[in-house]
């Protein structure tokens, strides 16, 4: 399906991508301004879209249960730390209630660059498929793919395919699931992206992976017979490419936040080194009591020892 690319206005493309794998249909639909202004994006918009698709009887592996990906209006703006994050939303096969998991990488940003504020995927494909959102051609396709658990080196095969088609590594971001997602209720979604600055044997450039690891949404993706979801897009350049009301203030606020993270994180969470694990010791402190222990009966645990990384991991 070909679609019209919308210029970002105040951080919004004002359209949502809907894919129905059972019917084999694809549609780009306007984002209702009232819904946009009330739910904003990310988790809020994702949960709204989930609510619109399900009822009290819907189960996680039912065709009508949508798998939703939703960045926010700041999604992909490099002036702000953390804006590469995207929310995955669906009914969870693990908890059997709405599940939300955020993940890093470039997928959410590229979805925005390609012209969508969110995407919903319903139905179940008869055979394994790959969904490709091509922001260069303004085209979305559903193509046959090998089963994820039958391909060794799946991620490399996907990268090689699009390199052969003339794309650069920096232009692609894609999602896959692990092999275990098909047989468990806690499968992850893997978010793959190209990091041009990561040193590798003295050179630069490496595909890295982040995960949507909470609530088993990778298992939902696997049961829909989705091998991969690929977005091809270019980083937007120019003066105010996000349509901000005041681009100067956006850049100024972003610079302040970058400085705070750079100055404070090494003395606090150290998330640049430890990732999410850096939160554990922080949450366990007496003054916060925010670590869920015994189904949230307690906010800390005396047996927890501070997380210490071997020095060899840091350099």
CATH fold category name of the largest domain = Aldehyde Ferredoxin Oxidoreductase,  A, domain 1
Radius of gyration (Å): 20 Å
- Fraction of residues in H or I helices: 10-25%
In the CATH scheme, the class of the largest domain would be Alpha Beta
Order of helices and strands: EEHHEEEHEEEHEEEHEHHHH
CATH superfamily of the largest domain, called what?
Aldehyde ferredoxin oxidoreductase, N-terminal domain
Specify the structural class: alpha+beta
Number of strands: 12
Structure in words:
By secondary structure, the chain is α+β, with helices and mostly antiparallel strands. The protein folds into two domains: 15-232, Aldehyde Ferredoxin Oxidoreductase,  A, domain 1 (4-Layer Sandwich); 268-314, no CATH class. Helix content is 24%, strand content 25%. The protein contains nine helices and twelve strands. The protein has helices at 33-39, 42-53, 107-114, 154-164, 217-223, 247-264, 271-274, 278-283, 311-314; strands at residues 15-20, 25-30, 67-70, 86-91, 98-103, 118-122, 129-134, 139-144, 172-177, 189-200, 203-212, 226-232. The strands form two sheets. The protein has a six-stranded mixed sheet. It has a six-stranded mixed sheet with strand order 8-7-12-9-10-11. The radius of gyration is 20 Å and the shape is globular.
């Amino acid at each position: 399906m070909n679609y019209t690319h919308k210029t970002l206005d105040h951080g919004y493309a004002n359209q949502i991508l809907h894919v129905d794998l059972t019917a084999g249909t694809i549609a780009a639909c306007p984002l209702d301004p009232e819904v946009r202004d009330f739910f904003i994006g990310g988790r809020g918009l994702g949960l709204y879209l989930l609510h619109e698709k399900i009822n009290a009887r819907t189960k996680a592996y039912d065709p009508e249960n949508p798998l939703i990906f939703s960045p926010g209006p700041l999604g992909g703006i490099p002036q702000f730390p953390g804006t590469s994050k995207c929310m995955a939303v669906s009914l969870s096969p693990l908890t059997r209630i709405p599940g939300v998991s955020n993940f890093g990488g470039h997928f959410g940003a590229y979805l925005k660059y390609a012209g969508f504020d969110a995407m919903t995927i319903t139905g179940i494909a008869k055979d394994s498929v790959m969904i490709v959102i091509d922001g260069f051609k303004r085209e979305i396709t559903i193509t046959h793919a090998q089963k994820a658990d039958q391909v060794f080196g799946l991620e490399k095969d996907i990268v090689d395919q699009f390199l052969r088609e003339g794309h650069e590594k920096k232009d692609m971001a894609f999602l896959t699931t692990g092999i275990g997602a098909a047989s468990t209720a806690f499968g992850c979604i893997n978010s793959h992206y190209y990091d041009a600055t990561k040193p590798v044997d003295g050179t630069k450039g490496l595909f890295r992976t982040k995960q949507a690891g909470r609530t088993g949404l990778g298992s939902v993706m696997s049961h829909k017979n989705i091998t991969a979801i690929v977005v091809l897009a270019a980083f937007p350049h120019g003066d105010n490419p996000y349509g901000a009301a005041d681009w100067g203030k956006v850049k100024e606020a972003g610079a302040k936040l970058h400085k705070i993270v750079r100055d404070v994180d090494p003395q606090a969470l150290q998330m640049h080194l430890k990732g999410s694990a850096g939160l554990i010791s922080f949450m366990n402190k007496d003054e916060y009591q925010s670590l869920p222990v015994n189904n949230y009966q307690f906010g800390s645990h005396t047996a927890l020892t501070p997380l210490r990384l071997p020095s060899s991991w840091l350099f």
